[in-house]
């Protein structure tokens, strides 16, 4: 199985971590350095999928797939194998739900676009 | 501040206006227009500190004292909101809002809260107290109860606002201005440091790594979650902000000496 980053994600490396956001579920994830290297080695939508190397990387990618962050490409392509640095196990360090409009925006329920609520479209 | 002669015609689809007003809110130029001088007086009292020369407008607000002028209007890109004394209809695509009702100041503030996350090109609307030291600005970020208002009351000479701040990216760095909540002051500063606040028995400060700072900022940012492309842009903005500005966790006691600790982190 090959993998690529889901199109509804955005990400950036910040120091020793890679921060990923799922723009559909609005959840942010922090990947450790090893996980970040795996993530960076994956292709974008339309790119050749990467083939994981080793059981730790494969398990990590399965976890990302269950979260909807990566997509299986159906079959492995002859892409560059993923290298996990220093044989460390890649992992997700943290996850945070992004607030829709924060906790104290001043718009209360019933005002059309309340905190934490979906905007009301006319 | 401009009050035009009666008969001024707004450049946007609207009735005849008798006044117009230009505001500058954290780098966003807002144009207001209306007919009632009572509305103008109420808005001047509320938003006067943010008045500015007319510029390239990002958001237009039409103010009416009569309620429900848009009754029955439907459109996919419209957002509606209301509370006692005001109603608003916001067209996000056109960046145009109608605010109606006798409580025009509250209605305009609600329109700004709703619209700014959508119209900021490279910026964030953050729950934060904004402190000023000359041209440098310091953001104290956190949810209700973290100490934003306490910090502003403790340092009134330095506080531009105690609830919401508008942060904008530019070629020269990050600038911030206060959102015009009641009592907030106008003006923009260069963001020198960001503090994630919490009350503590004594002052203490420790650095927050950029990845963690990005997650904490996302928790306190008005996020247009219904528009993935805007969410992508917002993510790009806040991760760049977290990477380029020193970020700290700050526990503080209710003592003015905390200001020295704050300005030392920029």
Characterize the structure shown.
The complex is a heterodimer of chains A (122) and B (266). With 122 residues, chain A is of the alpha+beta class. Chain A has two helices and six strands. In chain A, the strands form two sheets. A four-stranded antiparallel sheet of chain A has the order 2-3-4-6. A two-stranded antiparallel ribbon of chain A has the order 1-5. The longest helix of chain A is centred in the middle third of the chain and has 12 residues. Chain A is globular and about 40 Å long. The C terminus of chain A is likely disordered. Chain B is of the alpha+beta class and 266 residues long. In chain B, 25% of the residues lie in helices and 35% in strands. Chain B is built from six helices and 14 strands. Chain B has a six-stranded mixed sheet, with helices on one face. Chain B has a five-stranded mixed barrel with strand order 7-8-12-11-10, surrounded by four helices. In chain B, strand 7 and strand 8 form a beta hairpin. Chain B is globular and about 50 Å long. The N terminus of chain B is likely disordered. The interface between A and B is large, with 37 and 46 residues.
Per-chain topology:
The complex is a heterodimer of chains A (122) and B (266).
Chain A: E1 3-5, E2 9-14, E3 17-22, E4 27-31, H1 33-41, H2 55-66, E5 70-72, E6 92-97
Antiparallel strand pairs in A: 1-5, 2-3, 3-4, 4-6
Chain B: E1 19-25, E2 28-34, H1 37-47, E3 59-64, E4 78-83, E5 86-91, E6 96-100, H2 104-119, E7 123-133, E8 136-141, H3 148-154, E9 159-161, E10 164-170, E11 173-178, E12 188-199, E13 204-207, H4 210-219, H5 228-244, E14 247-252, H6 258-263
Parallel strand pairs in B: 2-3, 3-6, 8-12, 12-14
Antiparallel strand pairs in B: 1-2, 4-5, 5-6, 7-8, 7-9, 7-10, 10-11, 11-12, 13-14
């Amino acid at each position: 199985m090959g993998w690529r980053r889901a199109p509804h994600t955005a990400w950036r490396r910040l120091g020793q971590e890679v921060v990923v956001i799922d723009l559909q579920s609005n959840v942010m994830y922090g990947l450790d350095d090893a996980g970040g290297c795996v993530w960076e080695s994956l292709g974008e939508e339309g790119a050749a999928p990467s083939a994981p190397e080793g059981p730790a990387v494969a398990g990590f990618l399965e976890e990302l797939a269950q979260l909807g962050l990566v997509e299986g490409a159906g079959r492995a392509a002859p892409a560059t194998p993923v290298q996990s640095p220093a044989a460390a196990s890649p992992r997700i360090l943290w996850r945070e739900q992004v607030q829709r409009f924060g906790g104290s925006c001043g718009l209360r329920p019933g005002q059309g676009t309340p905190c934490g609520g979906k905007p009301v479209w006319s | 501040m401009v009050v035009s002669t009666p008969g001024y015609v707004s450049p946007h689809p609207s009735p005849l206006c008798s006044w117009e007003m230009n505001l500058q809110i954290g780098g966003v130029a807002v144009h207001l227009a209306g007919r009632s001088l009572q509305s103008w007086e109420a808005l001047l009292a509320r938003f006067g500190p943010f008045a500015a020369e007319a510029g390239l407008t990002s958001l237009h607000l039409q103010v009416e004292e009569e309620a429900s002028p848009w009754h029955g209007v439907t459109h996919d890109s419209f957002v509606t909101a209301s509370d006692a004394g005001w109603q608003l209809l916001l067209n996000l695509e056109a960046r145009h809002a109608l605010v109606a009702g006798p409580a025009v100041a509250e209605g305009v503030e609600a329109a700004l809260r709703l619209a700014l996350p959508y119209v900021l090109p490279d910026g964030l609307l953050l729950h934060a107290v904004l402190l000023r030291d000359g041209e440098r600005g310091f953001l104290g970020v956190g949810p209700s109860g973290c100490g934003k208002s306490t910090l502003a009351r403790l340092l009134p000479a330095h506080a531009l606002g105690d609830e919401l701040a508008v942060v904008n990216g530019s070629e020269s760095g990050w600038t911030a201005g206060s959102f015009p909540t009641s009592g907030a002051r106008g003006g923009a500063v260069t963001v020198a440091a960001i503090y994630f606040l919490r009350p503590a028995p004594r002052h203490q400060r420790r650095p927050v790594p950029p990845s963690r700072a990005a997650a904490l900022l996302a928790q306190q940012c008005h996020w247009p979650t219904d528009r993935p492309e805007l969410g992508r842009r917002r993510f790009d903005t806040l991760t760049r902000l977290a990477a380029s500005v020193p970020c700290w966790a700050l526990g503080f006691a209710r003592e003015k000496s905390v200001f020295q600790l704050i300005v030392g982190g920029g």
